[in-house]
Amino acid sequence: MTHIPTKLLAPICKTVRRDIVEMTHAAGSGHPGGSLSAVELMVALYFDTLRHNPEDPKWDDRDRFILSKGHACPVLYSVLARTGYFSPDELVTLRKLGSRLQGHPDMLSLPGLDSSSGSLGQGLSVANGLAIAGRLNKKDYRVYCLLGDGELQEGQVWEAIMSAAHYKLDNVCAMVDYNNLQIDGCCEDVMGIAPLADKWRAFNWHVIEIDGHDLSQVSAAYAEAATTTGKPSVIIARTVKGKGVSFMENVAGWHGTAPNKVQLAAALAELQ
Amino acid sequence: MLMKPTRDGYGEALLILGKENPDVLVLDADLAKSTRADWFWKEYPERFFDMGISEQDMLATAAGMALGGKIPFASTYGVFVAGRAWDQIRTTICYANLNVKMGGAHGGISVGPDGGTHQSLEEIALMRVLPNMTLILPCDAIETRKATLAAAETNGPVYLRFAREATPVVTTEDAPFEVGKAITMRQGSDLTIIAAGPVLYEALLATEALSQKGISARVVNMHTIKPLDEATIIAAAEQTGAFVTVEEHQVYCGLGGAVAECLGKHFPAPVEMVGIMDTFGESGTPEELAVKYGLTSKEIIAAAEKVLRRKRK
């Protein structure tokens, strides 16, 4: 498969970042920080790696994506809109009454969502189930699952990490958005998760460590995961919470706070 | 009377489904021998998944399998399905209305010597509150087999509760079974006893004793708690005007509560509830526990006499 050059993906990342600050501003709430940190992971996935067809969201042979950290749905809604699942005009309905863009993903309301999510720690298990079903159905689709780093404090994640390795689900690719911040502060202060790569390796996963904002590293990591056989792969992506908006970067407070009008203007000015 | 554990009905149905439907998968959490899921495991090992002692992972994995077009049956003890994995059932399975079937084994105090930690007495409360859920408590092994087969044909989440001990087989092979359609086991005009699960047998025993006292009790097998067969309850209210509910479950938020909600809305009538009286169980034999915790025909007879005194003349 030929990759889309990163110079074409980079402007899309800026568009998606603008979407994230605009939609959370319009909603007056939501989660910009952990959405902004995952932009490169999501843009490289949806615009380059993922086998999907926005005209046929239920296509049987499509690759699947599970957003385990459901609160980061602004970044997912943006890439779905920008790849053509629905009009980008709809993004500003986020979190409003009657909107298909629920505060956390609701697959029954919005085409293109492969699962509903919101309660942390459950998505990797769902991805494993989809991967097992795909194998039994003799489908060659892959299943991608984005997890937050704080989310790894949920015990069920480690159950799922065991299961994927036990059943040798090499059609599963997990991505950890390792921005090292959660609501109450730095992950290492709240409940330490390091050493992350060693832990996944000890659980028999193929571990790929990258700079999660370097598009060429992200695309290469997806390709490496796709050619790894006999075990599942995890991409541990070092990221910056709030990436791209200077006053949001590395500030835990922007986990779940929407920008006001002045902040929106300042953010958009930086994202030109 | 033929005695057989309801869990055997689950195991038999899984074997039938394994043969008839290649999309049926079975998962268990290290208790396959107890739940009877191991019968399927031996015949169809490529479609059986032991998830180890990790119920939350098991339920969410089943959700993923359902998203992939499969019909997963995930079973373990009821305390661990309905209790430990409740959030997975709520947020990952029911919120998206996924086609996951849950088998809650060893329901009720009749589990016996394992004691209070393992005696599941809360499934009705925990499962009935969830939108999209179908909840079935079959009364014997035959009905459990039928209910399990019906669950595979029902789209969306279905919870089946079955038990460990051999209990009387009170239905017949040719008796009809339809999800959401209660079965009137005995006609009667003075009051209606509504029961679910193997404890239905005690209601049938009570009916015979009441009959000798000149009391005509109707017996309704409310195998499906959700969706509740309100029409059958309302008709019984109109025709008999008094109720006793019987369940091997907490009386709070259980079958009795469901019946009382229905009556309150449509046709108020007195209800006496027989069940576990807001307490945990303990170790003992199933028979000893049934006596100590008041789940025998004796309590049902007393409740019937009491409700008749409350009945409007």
Query: Radius of gyration of chain A, rounded?
Result: 17 Å
CATH superfamily of chain A: Thiamin diphosphate (ThDP)-binding fold, Pyr/PP domains
Indicate how many domains the architecture of chain A comprises.
1
Shape category of chain A: globular
How many helices of chain A?
Answer: 10
Say what oligomer this is.
heterodimer
Distance between the termini of chain A: 31 Å
Q: In terms of per-residue confidence, which ranges of chain A show pLDDT below 50 for 5 or more consecutive residues?
A: none
CATH class of chain A: Alpha Beta
Number of helices in the DSSP assignment of chain B? 13
Give the biggest sheet of chain A. 5 strands, parallel
Strand order of the largest sheet of chain A: 1-2-3-7-6
Residue-averaged pLDDT of chain A: 97
Write the layout of secondary structure elements.
The complex is a heterodimer of chains A (272) and B (313).
Chain A: H1 6-27, H2 33-36, H3 39-49, E1 64-67, H4 73-82, H5 123-136, E2 143-148, H6 155-166, E3 172-178, E4 181-182, E5 185-186, H7 187-191, H8 196-202, E6 206-211, H9 215-226, E7 233-238, H10 261-270
Parallel strand pairs in A: 1-2, 2-3, 3-7, 6-7
Antiparallel strand pairs in A: 4-5
Helix pairs in contact in A: 1-3, 1-4, 1-10, 3-4, 3-9, 5-6
Chain B: E1 3-5, H1 6-20, E2 24-28, H2 32-35, H3 37-43, E3 48-50, H4 55-67, E4 71-77, H5 78-84, H6 86-94, E5 101-105, H7 123-128, E6 134-136, H8 141-153, E7 158-161, E8 166-168, E9 183-186, E10 191-195, H9 200-212, E11 217-221, E12 224-226, H10 230-240, E13 243-250, H11 255-266, E14 271-276, H12 286-292, H13 297-310
Parallel strand pairs in B: 2-3, 2-4, 4-5, 5-7, 6-7, 10-11, 10-13, 13-14
Antiparallel strand pairs in B: 1-8, 6-12, 9-11
